[in-house]
Backbone:
């Protein structure tokens, strides 16, 4: 029995594709289960011994399956292997850059229209002056303020400023009872730089 020559799989697959087209034509003429490649399955026939082809008996026939020949089929792709082991853990990512922000939108009358939570109006001692209690120390943190439109549509305004109560190097001396570092003093002004009640935003970062 002659044996198949040792060839690369790429060559074998290329040959099978060509032979598959020819075999499909033969199958269209009435041959059952034509050899070749169909839906990812390779089908061939093993030639049976005959006096006329003793040299090729046992060879694989990719073109025809004659009566009495044994068909052999196999998938182009084998079964899926077991999952591989888990890879090593990756390095820790950088720390997040976002800092917690506490903020409030305050109306001109001192009422809080919206906020991040935990902020109350502690005092409204005079026109344009507001003291807010943030519930924790705000000194040493960035504090920003700006004008707002919470029922206050006046566009002609002056500067809005803010800072921590408690005096010292960065604070403002607030009225008695509110002069602690958990309070923020905000002042709103008119276009003539006179303290005047206006809506505002105030935010403490970190």
Residues:
């Amino acid at each position: 029995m002659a044996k198949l020559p040792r060839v690369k799989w790429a060559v074998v697959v290329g040959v099978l594709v060509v032979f598959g087209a020819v075999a499909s034509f033969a199958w269209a003429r009435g041959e059952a289960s034509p050899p070749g490649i169909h839906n990812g399955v390779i089908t061939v026939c093993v030639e049976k011994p005959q006096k006329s082809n003793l040299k090729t008996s046992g060879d694989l026939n990719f073109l025809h399956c004659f009566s009495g020949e044994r068909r052999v089929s196999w998938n182009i792709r084998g079964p899926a292997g077991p999952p591989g082991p888990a890879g090593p853990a990756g390095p820790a990512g950088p720390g997040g850059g976002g800092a917690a922000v506490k903020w409030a939108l305050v109306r001109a009358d001192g009422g809080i229209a919206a906020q991040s939570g935990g902020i109350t109006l502690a005092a409204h001692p005079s026109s344009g002056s507001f003291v807010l209690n943030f519930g924790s120390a705000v000194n040493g943190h960035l504090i920003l303020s700006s004008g707002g439109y919470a029922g206050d549509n006046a566009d002609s305004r002056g500067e809005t400023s803010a800072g921590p109560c408690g005096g010292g190097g960065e604070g403002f001396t607030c009225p008695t009872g509110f002069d602690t570092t958990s309070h923020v003093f905000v002042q709103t002004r008119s276009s003539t730089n006179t303290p005047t009640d206006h809506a505002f935003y105030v935010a403490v970062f970190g």
About this structure: The longest strand covers residues 157-164.
